[in-house]
Design brief:
heterodimer, A: about 725 residues, alpha+beta, Beta-Lactamase, Phosphatase 2c, domain 1, 6-stranded antiparallel sheet, about 20% strand, rod-shaped, B: about 100 residues, alpha/beta, Transcription Regulator spoIIAA, 4-stranded parallel sheet, 4 strands
Chain lengths: ~725, ~100
């Protein structure tokens, strides 16, 4: 296409009048100004002139030759006749004594009558001139010019007749015959060639005149005709220039019955097509723009980053299909502290699917607080969606609520893909199939009967993978085989130990490898709930670990725990022992365990005093004890239940506002190493980690630095062997 | 009325199916849809089947789905919709059922 900005919509068109096309490779400058244009008029006129001249001249040449020949023939014939005539007339005169008396006046008259004759005379048999228009020649000898040469006769010659000629004259002789047949003399008649030439000249002049007239006529009519024919070109050019400026509405008006008329029609058709194509393109662009907006809106409905709840990481990811689509996922905190998790897939793609998704997202947002049962929520969604969904449209959906403390997930599925559960303990994989029908599939609330809440528990090393069928139904480039559940299992088995992000990346890239180049055919959505709790050095206790959401634990402690206020000095820490005793009154706690616990708590608080507050006694901090209640149902706001058994476990919480210090990178001290013994101090952390099954330090929360320590008596007992004596 | 469907049932062909069934429905006939020849069904295809079922229910005409191909059957089962569509193993079973 041409690159001139002024002529953007139109193609490059060479002006018809310019015989010079744009040089290849150089952009068309599009303007006729400054070009030397050779008008067609002149070309055609010149052609007409050349043709006419050529025709007329060639005709003239041929005609002249014929004329010349004809004239020559005529001249010879005439001369011959005259000569014979003269010969006859002279016959009697020559027999007389004084022939000149008869011949002279005769010849004189002849010459006078025909001045074009060069000469005419009669000679006797001796060559003496007996007859001549000029009397002085009489009696003289006839001396023909030496340049005379015989001429090819065009007339039949009689005996002793001759035709001779040179440049100037044509001479014919004829014998004068006696009655008895003897030649008694010769009659000689000569014609000036000049005469002939003059006749030919006159003919030629005539011809030139004709030529001239024709030429003028030709030029004039050519010029006029061309002007007439070319006027429409001006109109066309103006019209095309108009189109070039962007005016596609005004047609080129040309009432012309030649090819130019057809050209005008073609140009108008082209303009109409251009206009249509232009408006189509504008429409398509604006539609593409709308689709892009829809896509942006859709992706804004998805969570932007992973969510950490307790020891669980919930993360989702979507690779969108080329066409804006209908996959959805979300995770969000619920009022009761659980995390709601949703994955959904709309039947059908495109903007329609996108809009259904937005509806679903909004409904979910509005309704999620009102339903503790996932089945109930899905049924309610079906109800609402059913009001607005087109017949034949439906949504498969998985919804669950995760209690990050206990690892319990209560869920229901409306016809959605089965859930993949990976068990870290045996690297095994389970599939949990859905029993519900999709939302909106069957109207009238029939879905209720098919939905039911199910419960599973996730523990350390476990992962839950939910997805949409863009993953398992992804086809290979030959469209023969789907990625399938088996391959998903393999990928998950391999990557689950590395956490949610690893599973997600691995699934996406395996599917990408499977399908080959190009954007996905369908939205590929993956959501993973993975146990990635605090990576403590010790094995977590057999019981479910205290969920380490520090603020939740603090709130819980404030609700059901026992508190000891402390000042930031080491002296005040001596009261810890007594406090622990009080906390464990009525519970079974071995003496050595008790000692260990007190020491550990002392060390933990000492750390705060020394490192966090620099022993500034004006500041204070809190030490909390939360006893072990029913661990499977715990959450702030919920009333504590009766302890299922007096196991004696629970957790301690320290909340301070001092400077945060680093408690990381602690490694177990090797007590068998004598060097360690020599150090004599710095075993504080050791003790803490041996007494407590779990230690988590959460510096800088909204409510201060929070240290969580889970106390599990059975754990402490095992570690007892290594206690510093 | 018996309609035998074959080929791909996707976003392009779904509307055609809906139209054909609508004709049957407005004429007041019952319908047997033989899906034995359906080689592939997309979600819009399933949607069409659901829509047709719903429309026939509202119009109080009967519709039965016969001889589901493997493709159709697997998707229907996956979505747990086998309870909600009246499905017969063969055409003849549908005919018998309708005549009853």
């Amino acid at each position: 296409m041409n690159e001139a900005p002024t002529h953007a919509p139109s193609g490059a068109t060479a002006p018809v009048e310019a015989p010079v096309a744009a040089a290849p490779g150089r952009p068309w400058t599009g303007s006729r100004r400054g070009r030397n244009v050779l008008s067609i008029r002149w070309i055609v006129t010149a052609a007409a002139v050349a043709l006419t001249t050529g025709a007329v001249l060639s005709v003239g040449v041929v005609a002249e030759r014929n004329t010349r020949r004809a004239l020559a023939r005529e001249a010879e014939a005439r001369l011959l006749l005259e000569a014979r005539n003269l010969a006859l007339t002279s016959s009697e005169a020559l027999l007389n004594d004084f022939p000149e008396l008869t011949l002279h006046p005769f010849l004189k008259e002849m010459k006078a009558r025909e001045p074009e004759l060069a000469f005419a005379l009669v000679v006797d048999k001796n060559g003496v001139i007996q007859g001549d228009p000029d009397a002085r020649e009489l009696g003289g000898r006839y001396r023909p010019s030496s340049t005379l040469a015989p001429v090819q006769p065009t007339q039949p010659l009689g005996a002793e007749e001759s035709i001779m000629g040179n440049h100037q004259v044509l001479v014919v002789t004829s014998p004068v015959l006696h009655r008895n047949g003897r030649t008694i003399g010769t009659a000689i008649v000569a014609l000036r060639r000049g005469h002939l030439e003059r006749m030919i000249q006159s003919a030629r002049r005539q011809q030139t005149l004709v030529l001239g007239v024709f030429l003028v006529l030709g030029i004039a009519s050519a010029y006029v005709l061309m002007s007439f024919l070319l006027r429409p070109i001006e109109t066309l050019r103006a019209g095309i220039e108009r189109i070039g400026r962007g005016d596609l509405d005004t047609p080129v008006r040309l009432r012309d019955h030649t090819e130019l008329g057809l050209l005008a029609v073609a140009v108008n058709d082209m303009a109409a097509e251009l206009k249509r194509a232009q408006s189509e393109m504008v429409e398509r662009e604006s539609l593409a723009h709308e689709v892009e907006l829809a896509r942006q809106i859709q992706s804004s409905l998805l969570p932007s980053q992973k969510r950490v709840a307790g020891d669980f990481v919930i993360e989702g990811s979507q690779h969108a299909a080329a066409e804006v689509g209908g996959d959805f996922y979300d995770y969000f905190p619920l009022a009761d502290g659980r995390i709601g998790i949703a994955v959904a897939d709309v039947a059908g793609k495109g903007l329609a699917g996108c809009m259904v998704m937005s509806m679903l997202s909004a409904l979910l947002r509005a309704m999620r607080t009102s339903f503790t049962s996932p089945a109930g929520l899905l049924a309610a969604l079906d109800d609402r969606l059913g009001e607005t969904l087109q017949p034949g449209s439906f949504v498969t959906m998985f919804y669950g609520a995760l209690d990050s403390e206990t690892g319990t997930l209560v869920y229901a599925s409306a016809g959605h893909s089965p859930v993949l559960i990976y068990r870290g303990s045996n690297q095994g994989v389970e599939w949990l199939k859905s029993k519900g029908i999709p939302l909106g599939a069957v109207r009238g609330g029939a879905i209720r009967a098919t939905l039911a809440d199910s419960t599973i528990t996730l523990g350390p090393g476990d992962a839950l993978v939910q997805f949409t069928d863009g993953i398992n139904e992804a086809f290979d480039p030959t469209w023969k085989e789907q990625f399938g559940f088996k391959r998903m299992e393999e990928v998950v088995r391999e990557t689950a130990p590395r956490g949610a992000a690893a599973i997600i990346d691995a699934l996406h890239s395996s599917v990408r490898d499977w399908t080959g180049e190009g954007p996905p055919h369908d939205d590929e959505t993956v959501l993973v709930v993975s146990y990635e709790g605090v990576k403590a050095e010790q094995e977590p206790g057999p019981k479910a670990t205290a969920g380490s959401d520090p603020l939740a634990r603090l709130a819980e402690a404030q609700l059901i725990g026992t508190c000891m206020q402390l000042r930031a000095n080491l002296e005040g820490l001596t009261g810890i022992r007594g406090w622990v005793e009080a906390c464990f009154k009525g519970r079974t706690l071995g003496e050595t365990d008790f000692e260990l616990l007190s020491t550990a708590l002392y060390e933990a608080c000492a750390n705060v005093v020394e490192h966090g507050y620099d022993k500034d006694s004006t500041s204070g901090f809190e030490l909390w004890w939360v006893p072990d209640v029913d661990l499977t149902r715990r959450g702030p706001g919920r009333p504590p239940r009766e302890p299922s058994s007096a196991r004696g476990g629970g957790y301690f919480l320290i909340r301070d506002h001092g400077r945060a210090f680093s408690a990381d990178n602690w490694t177990k001290t090797d007590f068998s190493d004598p060097v360690v013994w020599k150090r004599g101090r710095g075993f504080g952390l050791d003790i803490i980690h041996r007494a407590m099954s779990q230690v988590a330090y959460h510096p800088g929360t909204a409510l201060g630095n929070i240290t969580l320590m889970t106390f599990d008596p059975t754990f402490a007992a095992e570690e007892g062997k290594l206690r510093h004596a | 009325m018996l309609l035998r469907i074959s080929g791909r049932l996707d976003a392009k062909s779904a509307p055609q199916l809906l139209e054909r069934c609508a004709v049957v429905r407005t004429a007041g006939y019952n319908l047997i849809l033989n899906l034995g020849g359906v080689t592939f069904v997309a979600s819009s295809g399933i949607g069409a089947l659901l829509a047709v079922a719903e429309q026939f229910r509202e119009a109080e005409c009967r519709i039965r789905f016969a001889s589901l191909s493997a493709a159709v059957e697997s998707v229907i089962k996956l979505l747990n919709l086998d309870q909600f569509l009246t499905i017969d193993p063969t055409e003849d079973d549908s005919l018998t059922a309708l005549e009853a």
